[in-house]
Amino acid sequence: MFRILSDDKAESLFQVYLDSIRSSREQDLPSFPLPEKPSAAKGQRGREPEFTFSPDKLLGNVRLLDDGEYLVHFLVIGQAGRGLYTALKVSPFAYFQAKTDLEFAGYAGSYIAELDNSFHLNQDEIAASIILDDVDGYTFMQLESAWEARSGEIAHRFRLDKFDSWQARFHIQEHELTLSYRSRNTLTGLPPTLWIPHLEIGPEDRWTTVSRSHAPYRRERMNDEYNLVQFDRMPARKDKVEHVCEKCEQDMFAAIPVQMFEERDYSLEFGPGGSIVLLPHRRFIGRMVTIYCDEYKVFQGLLPKVLTVTDRPDSSLYKIEAGLKFRISTSG
């Protein structure tokens, strides 16, 4: 259900939302004395019960994680492998629901699941969170099915219409909350995909349709050797994309001489399946960086050799390269 608020009420609600995501570690909270721990009764041992970490206890809980910067609401949707779990960003602020979100009910309240805002957490991070609510088995199955369906074309079927809407501001902020966690999404062997507001908000055809006046456009490359990159000749078949990307780092960088990337911080190129990828300058690779697209943070973490800008096969490289300006910073 989509709700319509007056602009004044929406602004007030958005301010409440911003206050609600502030880390409690940044706030001056009053301290309360803790009760003394009761001594063990005579004849009883004073051992604490051992905590057993069970994946079955994680699924279907609405949890809250305080990472020192933000309070992050999430729901674990499944295991991702290598000791990580896939989580969906959820929020009780259903008034800011977009068409890509799924509203669901817990036992204590209603929430929206942001199907385009998933990330990975490890066991320690999940164990450090607190449980706020729970969902029944049928609701969890609906969330799980919606999440699996988003891996196809449904992920890009709906978009936010206006950049200055409160829904857009809300979702931009929600994606910033999960930015450092989403930067870990490399378990499939595919380059991490950036969530860029310019590509997710507004008319979709402004990034896909190329007019005839752009036909003679010649892209500026860093040097002639850059044409050796084999992305353009990679197979586009969906079942081969993962295999191709597992080899893309070796194949791509083996063909590029050491002296490349001397003038610019990055280059945009075609990737597997018609995607568009960002290749950072080699001096940034393997370092902790923050990448901005205009004023918006789109990546924060250990920088890999390849990042996916968009996986929409009909995107215009010309328009994206001309319209989006990225900045890589090592200072946060």
Describe, in plain words, how this protein is organized in 3D:
The longest helix has 17 residues. The protein is 23% helix and 24% strand. The chain contains 8 helices and 12 strands. With 332 residues, the protein is an alpha+beta fold. The protein is globular, with a radius of gyration of 23 Å.
Question: What secondary-structure arrangement, pairings included, does this model have?
Answer:
Blueprint: H1 7-20, E1 61-66, E2 71-81, E3 84-91, E4 101-105, E5 110-122, H2 123-128, E6 130-134, H3 137-149, H4 166-177, H5 179-182, H6 197-200, H7 238-254, E7 266-270, E8 276-280, E9 288-293, E10 296-302, E11 307-310, H8 317-323, E12 326-329
Antiparallel strand pairs: 1-2, 1-6, 2-3, 3-5, 4-5, 7-8, 8-11, 9-10, 9-12
Question: Could you name the key traits of this structure?
Answer:
single chain, six-stranded antiparallel sheet, globular, alpha+beta, three-stranded antiparallel sheet
